[in-house]
Write a structure and sequence with these properties.
- It is a single chain.
- By secondary structure, the chain is of the alpha/beta class.
- Helices cover 31% and strands 17% of the residues.
- It has a single domain (2-128), classed as Collagenase (Catalytic Domain) (3-Layer(aba) Sandwich).
- It has helices spanning 12-26, 51-55, 108-126, 145-150, 157-165, and strands at residues 2-7, 29-31, 42-43, 48-50, 64-69, 73-74, 83-85, 89-93.
- It has a five-stranded mixed beta sheet. A three-stranded mixed beta sheet has the order 3-4-6.
- Strand 3 and strand 4 (48-50) form a beta hairpin.
- The longest helix is centred in the C-terminal third of the chain and has 19 residues, at 108-126.
- It is globular.
Length: 172
């Protein structure tokens, strides 16, 4: 079971959409209670939040916990990340997935698709996948929103086969 955990204020409609998407791909998903963004994660010099501090603050109540936040996150060595993951936890930020971040008009369906891609990507890491060299594969590293928009929301055949061999049944 994958537990979705809003971190801070996150649109409930989008959370519900992601819950349905995750359930259709990976099986069981459930939305847990929202938590606060840890104040210690904020880095004033960058005006961003340390993604690892938020990630390691997530609940471990489910088999896997997926945090979803609106704050802009980074990890050491990178200017920003759309998400990150470890063995049982993953985190995505919606901030740079929104058209408004790029001073463009809001686009709800595009945000939903981008968020689903990032969710599937980060859960892929939780389930043992590395970045994929195939540009259309959801596991391709997104260096920009253009990379995210170009890639599919599904795993390529190679990545899907790795997941199947590990015993994870993914419905695509």
């Amino acid at each position: 079971m994958i537990l979705l955990q809003p971190v801070g204020t996150v649109d409930r409609g989008l959370i519900k959409t992601l819950e349905q998407g995750i359930a259709s791909i990976f099986g069981a998903a459930e939305v847990g209670p929202a938590t606060r963004v840890p104040a210690s994660a904020y880095v004033r010099e960058r005006d961003q939040f340390d993604g690892e501090k938020i990630l390691y603050d997530l609940s471990l109540e489910g088999e896997v916990t997926l945090g979803i936040t609106e704050v802009d996150i980074f990890v050491k060595g990178l200017n920003f990340v759309f998400g990150l993951a470890d063995d049982r936890r993953a985190l995505i930020s919606l901030r740079r997935l929104r058209q408004e971040f790029y001073e463009l008009q809001e686009d709800g369906p595009l945000l939903e698709l981008r968020a689903l891609k990032e969710v599937v990507h980060e859960l892929g890491h939780v389930f043992g996948l590395a970045h994929c060299p195939e540009r259309r594969c959801v596991m391709y590293f997104s260096n920009s929103i253009l990379d995210t928009d170009f890639k599919d929301w599904r795993y390529c055949r190679g990545c899907a086969e790795i997941l199947r061999r590990s015993g994870l049944m993914v419905r695509l």
